[in-house]
Design a protein that fits this description.
Helix content: 10-25%
Shape: elongated
CATH superfamily of the largest domain: OMPT-like
Largest sheet: 10 strands, antiparallel, barrel
Order of helices and strands: HEEEEEEEEEEEEEE
Oligomer: single chain
CATH class of the largest domain: Mainly Beta
Number of helices: 1
């Protein structure tokens, strides 16, 4: 039996146009769906031009100052629940080039009753008196970085910059019959070179990890030593351009300062959790 119905040439052309048209619509629709899914799954933090992080820093502090051959524990009787603030800013000049600035610092004091006499220079402080000490350090960092590995969910790179470090310490004692005053003080501010590595990773559109490690050794003028710093944080973005983060901040130094032929050695580290707000645009 032969089929009597057949498709004419015009009908075939019309059918081909319909098939081509429908195929184009399906391809376009699928592309739009993929783009929409990609946009929804991409963490906005990696694309922000400016990102700011600010919050309270709950510091734990340990320090030893060795001056005139004496070891003095600066952190004796210092409360570790003092709240300081830290702030960090990031400017992505291009997707790979970045400029980052940050500030953190701590200011502590101690009042220690001496169980035995100590010598500071030519002065002997007898047991039973109270030695008051203050210690302050601030670090302002500015660094230019380049992400030599970058994807939709991560970036890894190196930065070079300057840490402007300020270190202040002073000791005072009240001795009966002797006017009070400073018996030892130190005030040093130095711009120090720094090199570091950074790695950032977006687990989900809302969950983001940021980290940086820096280390540098130097011998500049009257000061030489080694400084390490570490920042690692996890951020949650319930909103596209704002969220909260929890980080751990660590800074450690071993410095030797020569002043007028007298050497003072300072070893310190301060570290602790940082709870912060993050905003970007």
């Amino acid at each position: 039996m032969k089929l009597s119905n057949s498709i004419t040439g015009q009908e075939w052309k019309t059918m081909k146009l319909k098939i081509f048209f429908m195929t184009g619509i399906c391809v376009l629709a699928s592309q739009l769906l993929v783009m929409a899914a990609t946009a929804q799954n991409r963490n906005p933090t990696l694309d922000e031009t400016i990102t700011l992080r600010l919050g309270p820093f709950l510091a734990n502090f340990n320090a030893t100052v060795k001056a005139f051959g004496q070891d003095i524990k600066v952190d004796e009787n210092i409360t570790t629940d003092d709240v300081n603030f830290a702030i960090y800013g990031l400017w992505r000049i291009t997707p790979r080039w970045r400029l980052e600035a940050g500030y953190s610092g701590i200011s502590t004091s101690t009042s220690e009753g001496l169980e035995e006499s100590i010598n500071i220079g030519s002065l002997t402080i007898p047991a039973g008196l109270t030695l008051d000490g203050e210690f302050e350090t601030e670090v302002l960092r500015l660094a230019l970085g380049y992400a030599f590995m970058r994807s939709d969910s991560s970036e890894f790179g190196v930065d070079l910059g300057i840490n402007y470090t300020t270190i202040k310490e002073s000791f005072r004692v009240s001795i009966p019959g002797v006017p009070g005053g400073e018996i030892n003080s130190l005030d040093v501010s130095e711009p120090l070179p720094t090199i570091g590595l950074f790695f950032n990773y977006a687990f989900t559109p809302e969950l983001y990890m940021t980290s940086r490690f820096g280390a540098f050794s130097f011998d500049i003028g009257d000061i030489d030593g080694t400084i390490f710093d570490l920042f690692g944080g996890l951020e949650y973005r319930p909103w596209q351009h704002a969220g909260i983060g929890l980080a751990y901040l660590y800074n450690s130094a071993d410095l030797t300062i020569s002043d007028g032929g007298i050497k003072t050695n300072i070893e310190y580290d301060y570290h602790g959790p940082l709870l912060y707000l993050t905003v970007g645009f």
